[in-house]
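for the recovery benchmark. tokens below, seq after
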């Protein structure tokens, strides 16, 4: 359902404003109950902040609307989804001509309870009780009773005016340093944009991503005794740590970095945990992932001896990628000897014709280097081809047949 909850809240507050001179009972009438029920249909709790926000602009003068969880007063399509489904509003409305104020609690959860107290008495809003009326001349204090991610504050009402104090709280948010993309608490989203996907890294190499731990609350944030931890330290290491028990001022930032250094090939995952005194996001966790790539192995074949002008085939088909679902590419290059022309230097088995040598010429050695690429890493191997000259055949002397002649005969 896609309702404008701001309009609903304003309608509820404006309706309440017309009640004057009478203390509102502890039980809501049918209209306000209907409005509250409609509010509860719009989402389920996912508290993300613990800073109180004064939303006075949502109601009439001399009335207060405080958002007890979120840091925004606008409920519309521009607000992140998690903000739209986890707001907890407290309406504070003067009861005219008295020193009293009504505390009306509008919750999306139904399980948050707040104790309201003053010198004249006390009450609890939450559950089935949505309204408490108290004399706030000496100050009214609201504090959590159970189930709440909430910072206590004090509301003081006198005559027709009121004011709020307190509401300070730390608020941890984690972002990717590269483009400041927000990584929510409990996030299992793995993308390169967030920096949670380290991509494919060859074993023996590494990749490092940096993050920002921001305090967007209104008071200092204190990290825990073990501020930053990673569940898989075999493949991931912290290279820039958060300070254990250190503090970050309001609006301050601490950077940290994580290195992916796969020990073996395959998909590697880990959970990053940050401990702090953020009262609704401790621990703050998010998932990271990387893929380890095994180095390919190049095999250019065995060294060979061939004759002058022989047809020769190089054999690189013994090369392997060492990872499933990878296809190797081949690149041959001659690095020594008289130049020859390979028929296809990107084939696993290119051919060429050996150089022509004359009798008596010295043998020549041709050297070829094979480079294979699996898409992430390369490997090389070399092979030598020795070309021999034609052998020199021994001459044959023919003196003719033996003869017998008479003395004096010319031969």
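predicted aa per position
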């Amino acid at each position: 359902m896609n309702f404008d909850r701001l309009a609903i809240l304003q309608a509820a507050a404006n309706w309440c404003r017309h009640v004057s001179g009478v203390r509102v009972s502890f039980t809501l009438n049918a209209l306000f109950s209907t409005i509250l029920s409609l509010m509860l249909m719009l989402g389920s709790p996912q508290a993300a902040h613990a800073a109180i926000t004064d939303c006075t602009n949502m109601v009439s003068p001399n009335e207060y609307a405080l958002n007890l969880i979120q840091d925004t007063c606008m409920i519309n399509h521009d607000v992140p989804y998690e903000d739209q489904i986890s707001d907890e509003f407290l309406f504070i409305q003067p009861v005219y001509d008295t020193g009293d104020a009504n505390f009306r609690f509008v919750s999306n959860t139904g399980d948050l309870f707040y104790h309201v107290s003053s010198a004249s008495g006390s009450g609890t809003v939450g559950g089935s009780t949505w309204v408490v009326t108290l004399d706030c001349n000496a100050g009214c204090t609201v504090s959590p009773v159970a189930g709440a991610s909430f910072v206590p504050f004090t509301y003081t009402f006198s005559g027709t005016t009121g004011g709020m104090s307190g509401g300070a709280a730390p608020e941890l948010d984690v972002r990717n340093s590269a483009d400041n993309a927000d990584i929510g608490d409990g996030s299992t989203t793995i993308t390169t944009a967030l920096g949670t996907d380290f991509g494919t890294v060859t074993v023996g190499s590494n990749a490092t991503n940096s993050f920002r731990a921001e305090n967007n609350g209104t008071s200092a944030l204190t990290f825990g005794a073990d501020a930053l931890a990673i569940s898989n330290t075999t493949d991931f290491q912290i290279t820039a740590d958060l300070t254990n028990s250190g503090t970050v001022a309001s609006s301050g930032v601490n950077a940290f970095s994580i290195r992916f250094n796969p020990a073996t090939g395959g998909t590697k995952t880990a959970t990053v945990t940050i401990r702090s005194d953020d009262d609704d996001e401790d621990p703050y966790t998010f998932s990271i992932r990387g893929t380890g790539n095994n180095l390919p192995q190049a095999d250019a074949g065995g060294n060979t001896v061939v004759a002058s002008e022989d047809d020769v085939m190089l054999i690189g088909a013994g090369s392997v990628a060492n990872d499933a679902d990878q296809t190797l590419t081949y690149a041959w290059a001659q690095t020594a000897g008289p130049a020859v022309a390979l028929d296809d230097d990107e084939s696993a088995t290119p051919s060429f014709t050996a150089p022509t040598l004359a009798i008596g010429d010295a043998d020549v050695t041709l050297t070829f280097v094979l480079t294979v690429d699996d898409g992430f890493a390369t490997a090389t191997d070399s092979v030598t081809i020795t070309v021999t000259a034609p052998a020199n055949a021994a001459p044959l002397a023919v003196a003719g047949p033996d003869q017998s002649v008479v003395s004096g005969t010319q031969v």
